[in-house]
Write a structure and sequence with these properties.
The chain has 186 residues and is α+β, with helices and mostly antiparallel strands. It is built from four helices and ten strands. The chain has helices at residues 11-21, 47-58, 91-106, 131-144; strands spanning 2-8, 28-29, 36-44, 65-67, 69-75, 82-87, 119-124, 152-154, 156-165, 168-178. Helix 2 crosses helix 3 (91-106). The radius of gyration is 17 Å and the shape is globular. The N and C termini lie far apart (40 Å).
C-alpha cells in the first residue's frame, strides 16, 4: 500500500482552493477531494507495517490548532514541478509533524530528512514546460499572489492510502486521529 499521513481540509477550504484552481491553466490539477496538507509520505508499505503505523499514530497526543493558508508558490523555480498554496507554520503543526515522523519511524518506516514547508498541492507540472506555459504560470502566480483564506481549526489528521490510476491518484482515508481541543471540553 502506498501511504501518507496528512491533514484533511474542511469543505469550505477545499471549495475555495478549487475555485482558485479554475484559473490555473497549467499542469494536472489535484482533484478537490484530494487536497490535503502532507505530514509524512510513507511510500509503499506492507500490511503489518501499516498496522504498526496506525497503532503508533493513535498514541499521539497533540493539541488542536488554527491553520491559515496564504500565498502561492512553486517548488523548484528553475524547473517548476508543482504549484501549491502555502500554509503558515504554527508551532503546534511543527510539533505534530515531528510526532508523526517519530511514530512512523518507530513502526519501521525509513523517512528521508527533508525541510518542512507546509503546503497544499494544487497542480503537478511536467518537468519541461514550454515557455508559453511558464508564462501562463507566471501570470497566474502574479495575479493570485495575495491569495489568502481565513484560519480554520485543525482538530484531526489521518492515515491515507494512495492508489495510482490512469486518471491520477485516488486517496482513501484509512484511519483518523483526533487532536485534543481544550476549548471543546465541558
Amino acid at each position: 500500500m502506498r501511504l501518507f499521513v496528512a491533514i484533511g481540509l474542511p469543505d469550505v477550504v477545499r471549495a475555495a482552493l478549487s475555485r482558485l484552481q479554475s484559473d490555473l491553466r497549467v499542469g494536472r490539477l489535484v482533484e478537490p477531494d484530494n487536497l490535503h496538507l502532507t505530514l509524512a509520505f510513507l511510500d509503499e508499505q506492507d500490511l503489518p507495517t501499516a498496522e504498526a503505523v496506525n497503532e503508533l499514530l493513535g498514541d499521539i497526543r497533540a493539541p488542536a490548532f488554527d491553520l491559515r493558508i496564504a500565498g502561492l508558490d512553486v517548488f523548484d523555480r528553475a524547473r517548476p514541478r508543482l504549484v501549491f498554496a502555502a500554509s503558515d507554520r504554527p508551532e503546534a503543526l511543527v510539533s505534530l509533524r515531528k510526532k508523526v515522523r517519530v511514530a512512523v519511524r518507530d513502526a519501521g518506516v525509513d523517512l528521508p530528512r527533508e525541510r518542512f514547508r507546509p503546503h497544499v498541492t494544487l497542480a503537478r507540472l511536467n518537468r519541461a514546460l514550454p515557455q508559453f506555459e511558464l508564462d501562463k504560470l507566471g501570470a497566474f502566480l502574479e495575479s493570485h499572489g495575495d491569495f489568502s483564506l481565513d484560519p480554520f481549526r485543525t482538530d484531526r489528521f489521518g492515515l491515507y492510502r494512495s492508489t495510482l490510476g490512469p486518471d491520477g491518484p485516488e486517496y482513501d482515508l484509512l484511519a483518523e486521529y483526533m487532536l485534543d481541543d481544550p476549548a471543546a471540553r465541558p
